[in-house]
Amino acid sequence: MLPYSYKMRMPFLNDLSPPHLPLNILKPILNRFMQKTILSVLTIIIFSKAVSGQVTKGSWLVSGSANYSRLQSSSEAATKFKQTNFQISPTVGYFLKDKFALGLRPSLSYGSNTIANSNTVLGIGPFSRYYFLKPENIFNLFTEGSYSYGTITGGQRLNTFSILAGQVVYFNSSVGLEFTVGYSTTKIVDYSGTNNEIKVGIGFQFHLEEDR
Questions:
Q1: pLDDT (tens digit, 9 = 90+) per residue, 124-154?
Q2: Domain boundaries, the chain
Q3: Contact yes or no for 91/65 (Cβ under 8 A)
Q4: DSSP structural state of residue 12
Q5: Domain 59-209 belongs to what topology?
Q6: By three-state DSSP, how is residue 84 classified?
Q7: Taking the model in full, what pTM does it have?
Q8: Which residues, 6 or more positions from 190, have their beta carbon under 8 angstroms from its beta carbon?
Q9: Contacts of 72 (CB under 8 A, 6+ apart)
């Protein structure tokens, strides 16, 4: 047991209160958190007031998504291999009629395969999308078909056809989060055989309606 005089010189032995951080450390952390929270709320308010409509004729569709896929190669352009791809693709489309949109999609993808090789593909092409449910629903189901012309590292040219299905959940009348699953087949120009892949994706949709 410690002498009483030694205890008096070590007051923390008698202080059983929980530890705390000085206010000058907590204050900038709280301020930053509040700034981010306010910015997020303002962003949602701005989008909800500046635009309206979801999948109605005359509206614009602006979206961005990231996709993950596994590819099985049977093209004669290279040794048979399997590859993992990651793709980023923004989208701009226009609703020609309710629930039906046509548009253009550029894309950038990176792949790493089983023959110790990697590649980058730049592509661009049209797409068509159809939504199944009524515009006023808080969520919707859609299907899509698309074509992309691209170039791969090394200069080879690609033609890719894709189909997908997905669901979008709306935060308000204009902003939604989408989830997709799809299948695509790619043919390398001047070579027989195809590269086939199944992909899953996630992204955001923004539906913009012109003032009338």
A1: 999 999 999 988 788 899 999 999 999 988 7
A2: 17-50, 59-209
A3: yes
A4: G
A5: Porin (2.40.160)
A6: strand
A7: 0.69
A8: none
A9: 82, 195, 196, 197
